[in-house]
Amino acid sequence: MFPGQLYKTESGRLFHAGANAIILVGLPARGKTAISRSLSRYLRWLGVQTKVFSVGNYRRQIIGVEVTNDFFSPVNKATADLRLKIANACLDDMVQWFTEGGQVGILDGSNTTEERRQELVKRFKECNVHAMFIETICDNPDIIDANIRSVKVSSPDYVGWDKQDAVDDFKRRIENHVPFYTTITDLSLTFVKVINAGERIIVNKAQGFLQSKIVYYLTNLHISPRTIYFARNGISLNEQSYKADAPLAPAGHRYAENLKNFVLTLRENTATSSPSSTSPQSETPRQLTVWTSSRKRSFQTAAHFLDHEEIIVRQRSVLADRNPGVCDLMTPQEIEEKYPDECLRAKADPYRHRLPRAESYYDLANRLEKVILELEREKNDVLIVAHESVIRCLYGYLNGLPESEIPSLEIPEGVLLEVVPTAYNTEERRYKIPDTVASVNWQQQSANLMALAGNFPASPMHMDHYLPDSIGRSIHDGNTTISSSTASSPTSTPSISGGLSAATSPLS
Ligand code: ATP
């Protein structure tokens, strides 16, 4: 039997070979739903059929949101049966889904008793589905309080409630669970314990490709707030050819300088105006790191940030745009004429189809997996300067978009995308980058950047370059002729009406 195959059990039901049930365990407000959603996003990105089964959603659908905390009390016999029925309805649907070919089902519920966990193991064993538990343990009161305030008080359970009343009520809900909660001690089970939001991870009996991937993914997760920006490369001297790897055109340098000025001013404005967040880790100012590929136009766009001591620029070859293969230098019309069958196949499956000797979006997504894990791990703010295809893939991942949508995502030129990961989703703003630069000695700057790129040739896939600040400063000294007065505040630019607030400036 091979992973990916469907097979029949003795009862005649069909199951996916290598199917995994991921079962969350933990008290309320421990991040079970947040972990379920992130993990599902990641596994789908890997091409694994994944679905989250949320017991909380089943409860809300079956009995509505009007429940008192008494409902959750494990000593309340009157509601115990109903709670079990709801949990089992969710479980039955999950088992049914495995029969339809599902590979990974994620059971998002509290599953806090040993008895319930043994029942689940038995049920999944009967249908040859591997059970893996993820227990999230948190005894840091600051994290718990921040979790309640950031997501629980705005849950459907508390619509119309006073915020403090909702917090107090949710804390009572947690207290109801505490006496009946036992941590996993059965070492025959496969489990991962995530302690205090990733401070410590304990792994037991995880095996196989998928479970190893899941464990590694969990080790990268954290709950510190951060912002991810995306901007496209500047225009190069040869836009038609991938192979030429042409340097930036003067207009590209101008754009790069505008981008830098805008990002720096935006961050300054945000730092002075941002209200205090509910997260316990949000007080420290975050550094900005710029990630770029080793393609000349990307790197040279990002290199404009090198004259800022506090900004690190990282060059990563995996961030290179899709290789167009034999279609390099060809217009879309020429490709249609020369490869009509390939074009039909590409239209039918734009994500997975690969033109001759080219990379598909699927290939690119695979190449970007390590960037994704690094993005999850990263606690600084990151600006990714890259080609449209690369931004489409990374943006698609962060927003959990289906692969079919990725090839046609619109990532406009001259726009800065700001994506803030939140507990369950992302918040997004788009800013038009204003043209604030008056005069720059482009030829001199271009020559210097070319020399710099020459010092850092395209790196092999496994190697990344960290560019020391001293290199950035040496470019700045005597070569750029931008005066600080030309880099005006974005709030004063006519292209953005009413300043930078989300309400006035986003393009979408
Ligand atoms: P409930 O049982 O009420 O559904 P839950 O355990 O599913 O609660 P979430 O709704 O996921 O809790 O809580 C989200 C909050 O948990 C977010 O603020 C998120 O930042 C935080 N969080 C995410 N991962 C963890 C973790 N490993 N430990 C603690 N908190 C986390």
TrEMBL record:
- This protein's superkingdom? Eukaryota
SMART domains per the UniProt record, alphabetical: PGAM (SM00855)
Chain segments annotated as coiled-coil in the UniProt record: 358-385
Keyword terms, alphabetized: ATP-binding, Coiled coil, Nucleotide-binding
One GO term in the molecular function aspect is: 6-phosphofructo-2-kinase activity
Q: Which protein is depicted?
A: 6-phosphofructo-2-kinase domain-containing protein
The UniProt site entry described as Transition state stabilizer is assigned to 387
InterPro entries attached to this UniProt entry: 6Pfruct_kin (IPR003094), 6Phosfructo_kin (IPR013079), His_Pase_superF_clade-1 (IPR013078), His_PPase_superfam (IPR029033), P-loop_NTPase (IPR027417)
UniProt region (Disordered), positions on chain: 270-290, 472-508
Mention any Pfam family matching this sequence: His_Phos_1
What taxonomic lineage is listed for the species of origin?
Eukaryota, Fungi, Fungi incertae sedis, Mucoromycota, Mortierellomycotina
> Which residue range or ranges hold the 6-phosphofructo-2-kinase domain?
11-225
Q: Does the keyword ATP-binding apply?
A: yes
Q: Which PANTHER family match?
A: 6-PHOSPHOFRUCTO-2-KINASE/FRUCTOSE-2,6-BISPHOSPHATASE, 6-PHOSPHOFRUCTO-2-KINASE_FRUCTOSE-2,6-BISPHOSPHATASE YLR345W-RELATED
